[in-house]
Design goal:
alpha/beta; Rossmann fold; 4-stranded parallel β-sheet
Length: about 220
Amino acid sequence: MHSPLVGPATWAGVAPLLSGRGYDVRVADLSGTMTDGPPYSPRQVEAIAGCAAGRPAILIGHSGAGALLAPAGLAADQAIGYVFLDAGLPVPGRNQMSTMPPELASQLRGLADEDGWLPPWSQWWGDDALAELIPDADTRRRFAAECPKLPLALFTERHQEGRDLPSAYIRLSEAYADPAAQAADNGWPVIELASHHLAPLTDPATVTEAITAMIGQLQ
């Protein structure tokens, strides 16, 4: 599953590679979950659980989707494990604003317009920063086109309770060193790659190798 802050194109390179290895892959599309007002995360959890309904599934979440894994695992009764890919960890009963660095929380409040809406994530860091992460212009355009405007309320609503299942962590960037360290402290298998946060778009083969290794451990 992709972060609610971006779109399913995050998985456009990795999903077919995993399918080619014999996995039944379904990408949950969360892009329509922001249009009907709060609460947002229950609709996102429902969309994820719908993809996994009726069959054993390992739920894989990138970035902001990490907070949704355990609630989706509770909703999808045959979920058997989680893989966190450069992702935040679940925050049951808390909101994401309370768990992010204070400077980022302040930045988000400053970006919000008078109606409480943020610009798309692809615009938060500037064109040069996005081009550095995604050098290919076509890939960058497709990615940016899917990034929705975001309600600030998405970051202030409390997340649902979840279900503990066997878990694994793949760290792509230094920004996620803390959750990777917490995962290691929890006794989860952890892979650390010298890469960057949007590596699923730019280096899908390496990311697929890491995911396949973690699926093997969880199975």
